[in-house]
């Protein structure tokens, strides 16, 4: 198993993610090569909670222009982690 800090990059904070927290689901941006088992073990080890389900999705980067130059934002992988009822992740509690 990989180091949990290498699997989870950062929590994802947006309006939609705050509404997901009411359903006990927490979104993270994770390493592109991480699988669901590694994500589950990383969240359980770092936050001392019980994970019921992990949903992952790969988001393709958009094409962007800076004047006449064209670039591309990097691809990223998101994971939505469903926790056992009663468990909370304290990182998100101040939002």
UniProtKB/TrEMBL annotation:
One of its GO terms (cellular component) is ribonucleoprotein complex. Keywords: Ribonucleoprotein, Ribosomal protein, RNA-binding, rRNA-binding. InterPro entries: Nucleotide-bd_a/b_plait_sf (IPR012677), Ribosomal_uL23-like (IPR013025), Ribosomal_uL23/eL15/eS24_sf (IPR012678), Ribosomal_uL23_CS (IPR001014). It holds the Pfam family Ribosomal_L23. One of its GO terms (biological process) is translation. One of its GO terms (molecular function) is structural constituent of ribosome. One of the early assembly proteins it binds 23S rRNA. One of the proteins that surrounds the polypeptide exit tunnel on the outside of the ribosome. Forms the main docking site for trigger factor binding to the ribosome. Part of the 50S ribosomal subunit. Contacts protein L29, and trigger factor when it is bound to the ribosome. Belongs to the universal ribosomal protein uL23 family. This is Large ribosomal subunit protein uL23. The lineage of its organism: Bacteria, Bacillati, Bacillota, Clostridia, Eubacteriales.
């Amino acid at each position: 198993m990989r180091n949990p800090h290498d699997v989870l990059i950062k929590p994802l904070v947006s309006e939609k993610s705050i509404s997901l927290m009411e359903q006990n689901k927490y979104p993270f941006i994770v390493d592109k090569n991480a699988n669901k088992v590694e994500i589950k073990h990383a969240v359980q080890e770092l936050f001392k909670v019980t994970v019921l389900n992990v949903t992952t999705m790969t988001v393709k980067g958009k094409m962007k222009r800076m004047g006449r130059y064209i670039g591309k934002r990097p691809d990223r992988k998101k994971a939505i982690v469903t926790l056992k009822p009663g468990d909370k992740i304290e990182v998100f509690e101040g939002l």
